[in-house]
DNA sequence: CTGCGACTGGAATTTACGTCA
DNA sequence: CATGACGTAAATTCCAGTCGC
């Protein structure tokens, strides 16, 4: 990314925009995890300027040249090399687009600090157009810094997301799209919400597991201490009462709870207890 | 301080495309 | 010329970690 500053040093950044001729969202998509990839071959020429003329693509591409000072600090992950000059060209199309909440009661405005080109297909064409109109107006701070402005989801949005998460913690692209439409959010936002939700659910579960294991550990420590003590007492008993010495060791058992010694043998076997292993309470998770 | 929306970077995976036998 | 195997680039998703409001 250093090239933006020093390599080219032109102060110019080439921005790429998709002006929709797009039936690509509606017609070519198929259900399935990677349906959106179907549009990739069409986007590809736009990313590699040295391959094909832009006009060969199936939709119009708009390029804008802007001063690099207008670009975002995060920059773009998608970059390519200018074939002729060997100069890195940053594609910042989406970076310059501002998302505007469709809901009028949404006071918060989501920043679009580092939307990447690859994310652009997340947006419906209308959304792109809306964002294009409202872009460059208010997303950036006056001083050009790119502070994240955080959207606060409404209760309704959160509730619906939660509801949806309960049904499936992972969304396929179609579900994501539908949910985003329903919530007046970008698919990317829905995606991020689900990612965060999964991560935090996992974190919570880890904490619960940790507490559980800690309690198990404490219980086992206690049990171990008790058994050690019991062993000591048994040893002491053995020394103090030589009476048991002449009995075969295998016939002697001790009740773990009442600590009484039961003898083996024919007659005694009925009255003696049996050593049933204690069931372990710390079953696996 | 906590909650949470958003971002970054990396891994894994799929797909398209070019090359070669 | 058609075809299959193979390598590679591009694009996607998810996750872990982090930032910052």
TrEMBL record:
Molecular functions per Gene Ontology: DNA-binding transcription factor activity, RNA polymerase II-specific; sequence-specific DNA binding
Localization per record: Nucleus
CDD domains: homeodomain
Keyword list, A-Z: Coiled coil, DNA-binding, Homeobox, Nucleus, Transcription, Transcription regulation
Coiled-coil segments on the chain, per record: 210-240
Pfam families given in the database record: HALZ, Homeodomain
Residues within the DNA-binding region(s): 146-205
Main location: nucleus
A cellular-component GO term for this protein: nucleus
Record domain Homeobox: where: 144-204
Cell division among keywords: no
The family this protein is said to belong to: Belongs to the HD-ZIP homeobox family. Class II subfamily.
Protein name: Homeobox domain-containing protein
Record lineage: Eukaryota, Viridiplantae, Streptophyta, Embryophyta, Tracheophyta
